[in-house]
């Protein structure tokens, strides 16, 4: 259905409030982004999973930033944190089911499914998702790219209007 990306992200931030309470969450949504033909519940789950990871794998008091920008044929959404980052060699593997990066220090609990689920949902929308180094080469940034078909530029008139 037609949904507003700001509402989807905002809903996920609200639902994740208990997880993010020791972090500072900043959201920046490009006002140029049109309504999108997406499954808002599933896409909301993607942002919830990414916020969960950002909190679990970065220290309290650090910042988490969600920003979304419109390009001519796609939308980029990024969830960035100031944690230790994901080693280059693991940046593709973390999207595999049950894959978790082994770390010398004890790691937060998890099943290793969160990012695999995110990839499944994003790909079902024709998009892509990858892990990058965060801002200034530190931390993690998960970057989602959603295609912007011309048909998604304008929402249809509501029925009976
Ligand atoms: P689940 O999400 O199923 O509870 P999980 O968080 O371990 O468990 P994923 O969300 O799929 O699973 O993440 C896979 C692995 O990628 C994590 O175990 C962690 O090692 C690494 N990872 C994910 N997000 C981050 C991040 N923001 N910073 C550092 N490492 C991360
Ligand atoms: Mg996770």
Protein architecture, described:
- Helix content is 27%, strand content 25%.
- It has 161 residues and is α+β, with helices and mostly antiparallel strands.
- It is globular and about 55 Å long.
- The protein starts with a strand and ends in a 14-residue tail after the last strand.
- Magnesium ion binds at residues 49, 52-53, 110, 114.
Termini, distance in Å? 18 Å
Q: Which regions are unreliable across 5 or more consecutive residues at pLDDT < 50?
A: none
Number of strands: 7
Radius of gyration, CA atoms, in whole angstroms: 16 Å
What's the rounded overall pLDDT mean?
91
Q: What is the ordering of alpha helices and beta strands?
A: EHHEEHEEHEE
> Roughly how much helix do the residues carry, as a percent range?
25-40%
Sketch the major β-sheet.
Answer: 5 strands, mixed
Structural class: alpha+beta
Assign an overall shape: globular
Report the bound ligands by name, code or SMILES: adenosine-5'-triphosphate, magnesium ion
Count, helices: 4
Beta-strand percent range: 15-25%
The largest sheet has its strands arranged as 2-4-5-7-6
What oligomeric arrangement do these chains adopt?
Answer: single chain
């Amino acid at each position: 259905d037609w949904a507003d990306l700001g509402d989807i992200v905002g809903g996920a931030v609200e639902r994740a409030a208990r997880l993010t309470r020791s972090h500072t969450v900043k959201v920046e949504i490009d006002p140029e982004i049109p309504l999108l033909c997406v499954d808002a519940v599933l896409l909301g789950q993607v942002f919830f999973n990414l916020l969960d990871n950002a909190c679990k794998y970065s220290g309290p008091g650090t910042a988490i930033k969600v920003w979304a920008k419109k390009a001519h044929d796609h939308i980029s959404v990024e969830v960035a944190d100031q944690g230790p980052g994901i080693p280059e060699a693991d940046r593709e593997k973390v999207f595999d089911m049950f894959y978790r990066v082994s770390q010398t220090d004890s790691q937060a609990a998890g099943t290793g499914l969160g990012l695999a689920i995110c990839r499944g949902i994003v790909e079902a929308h024709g998009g892509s998702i990858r892990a990058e180094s965060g801002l200034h080469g530190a931390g993690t940034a998960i970057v989602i790219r959603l295609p912007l078909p011309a048909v998604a530029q304008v929402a249809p008139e509501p029925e009976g209007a």
